[in-house]
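# nightly structure sweep
# worker-07 picked up a monomer target from the shared queue
# config: single-sequence mode, recycle default, output format = structure tokens
# input follows
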Amino acid sequence: MWADTLNLGTASGIVAVLAHLALAVVVLPQFGQHRRRALRLEAALLLSAVWAGLDAAVEQGWLGSHQWPALVLLPICDALRYGAWFSFILALIESRGDDGQARSAGVARPLQWLAWAGVSAAVALPLWRYWGDAPLAQMQRPMTMAWLGLGVFGLVLLEQMLRNIHSDARWNAKPVCLGLGAVFAFDVFVFSQASLFQQFDATR
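# output follows
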């Protein structure tokens, strides 16, 4: 099976795995200075690498005829990846209170709860689709809406980060905003189309 010609989707997944693993190695020296942020970034990078690798394996057919990796593991890894990136963004705008506890400055609690509720729903829906008795066609719209919501929440959290971090730190935050903003915006575009037309654009 390894002798098969790689298609574009598989090649892109492999490149994404290598890129995220390389960034994970680069982040390691940061543990001594900003341990909390570095740990969250490391988790986000590793989960993104796992998700990209699993997507490449499913795309190329390396997992054989098994359906559960594509129907369960892949969307759950994607949802956990979103949750890790949300956690990292919130860590960038944390402030320390008088009691020494970390607080996400400027991000309203209801917004944080909605973000985590979206991640939880995105984890639960694939499990429900695979083991529940609802037809797969009926689960397509809720799942695309859940991932559309995750992309929107990601963009909102980035906006909150730019709004609330110190003005001197905004220039350093631009690479994070551009990189994650492109990912979130692309997902919003893809899943908004899927929500409207109830199918993914195969030409994307």
